[in-house]
Amino acid sequence: MSFISDLMSDSVRANGLGALMKGAGLVTRFIPIPQPTLLVGPGSSGRLGQAIAGFGHNKILIVTDSIISKLGLLNDLTDALKAGGAQFVVFDEITPDAPIPLIEKGIDFYKEHDCDAIVAFGGGSSMDASKAIAVAVANPKPLRQLAGYFKGLRSPVKIYAVPTTAGTGSEVTVAAVISDPETHKKLVIVDPRMVPKMAALDPTLMTGLPPHITAATGIDALTHAIEAFVGNWTTDYSDGMALSAVGLIFENLRVAYNDGKNLAAREKMALASTYAGFAFTRANVGYVHAIAHQFGGLYHTPHGLANAIMLPYVLKYSSPAITGRLAQLALRARVGTEAESEDELAQKFLDAVDQLNRDLGIPTYLAALKESDIPELAKAACHEAHTGYPVPRYMTQEVCEGIIRQALPPATAAATPKRRKKA
Ligand SMILES: NC(=O)c1ccc[n+]([C@@H]2O[C@H](COP(=O)([O-])OP(=O)(O)OC[C@H]3O[C@@H](n4cnc5c(N)ncnc54)[C@H](O)[C@@H]3O)[C@@H](O)[C@H]2O)c1
Ligand SMILES: [Fe+2]
Known about the structure:
Layout: H1 2-28, E1 37-40, H2 44-53, E2 60-63, H3 66-70, H4 75-83, E3 88-91, H5 100-112, E4 117-122, H6 124-138, H7 143-146, E5 148-149, E6 158-163, E7 175-180, E8 185-190, E9 198-201, H8 211-230, H9 236-258, H10 263-283, H11 287-299, H12 303-318, H13 323-332, H14 342-359, H15 374-386, H16 397-405, H17 410-415, H18 417-422
Parallel strand pairs: 1-9, 2-3, 2-4, 4-6, 5-8, 6-9
Antiparallel strand pairs: 7-8
Helix pairs in contact: 2-4, 5-6, 8-9, 8-10, 8-12, 9-10, 11-12, 11-15, 12-14, 13-14, 15-16
The structure holds nicotinamide-adenine-dinucleotide and fe (ii) ion.
Residues 65, 67-68, 71, 96-97, 122-126, 128, 164-165, 167-170, 173, 175-177, 205-206, 208-209, 213, 217, 220, 296, 303-304 line the site of nicotinamide-adenine-dinucleotide.
């Protein structure tokens, strides 16, 4: 009896939530999202510098991390700014998943130097720290109060972006993800006015990206495209962007991983990441991200790696609800043919994601994951997903726990056979 009532309340909740999220999608599809002017190809970061130098800014703050500045990746941009007579200062202290105190330091730096624009230069961590600084200097409130949807009244200061990983798509998205070291949670600031005005996709900046970061960030982009494509907020536009991204990633990610200096593959991955950004900033993400954010908050797992580990488990769970969509992805990834049934194609896509992860050295488990943390992780992931993401197949907290449990490291998993079986 209690099983049936549990089941019923879950299905009622799932239907209610599904309807609510679909309704929200009907509204959000009309929210205008600005798009940056894109400069693409080798040398485009220098061309961006030439353009910005002509915009008459008083002083530009370049926000980046110390690895990027030591590698000399800023040179083309800064040479062009100097040649164009533009004033700039560099804040190169960003660390992965930038924590609030560091962003506050960036805000002070911006004010101290009387800046009036920002160049966000780096991976998602530098780009998102830049977005958070841009919102906070225009809206002087504690960062925690700026987390959520449209919390700043005034427009953020102008941002230009140069991504150096091909993963987050943050150069075109409405979101900034930062971390709160007090709660061990990630905070998301959402505001369409944070979208950069211009962005340079310069593959020459990415040729030194180590293979494991190429792999994890590339699967982050793949996850954006897939979650946008299989969720309930899709539009023709987001579908087109997501499919293009999936095609490019299956064609180029292994090449970029094995031959990092391959400029053509790097450029295609940069484009794929941007297309996936366009897709999910309109159609949103799902449980993979909801879980990955908890891993990032609690264990500091790199965002792309957390997604890469969870993507196969969440996709398999969701597959009965999204067979047709997975079949379309299989065709675009060129792992099946029109002659095959939807079921066969969907299975081929799931297998192809597993194979891609194996080829990129992505583990099937998260070494830091602890059984005792799973209930809290699942609770927080369900809360995040159920209050914001148009997921295609609802999970109860118990189901979510079972899915996360599949990512336990082998020794721990062997020690908890009963619970794994239940999952
Ligand atoms: N705003 C969004 O829409 C969005 C979307 C997805 C993820 N994110 C966030 O972005 C962050 C992750 O960003 P990321 O995956 O790009 O990683 P990252 O920015 O944290 O960088 C990872 C590492 O790669 C190094 N690196 C970056 N570019 C390099 C290069 N060209 N050569 C050598 N080393 C380089 C960095 O120094 C760093 O050590 C997370 O906080 C995540 O939550 C944001
Ligand atoms: Fe992501």
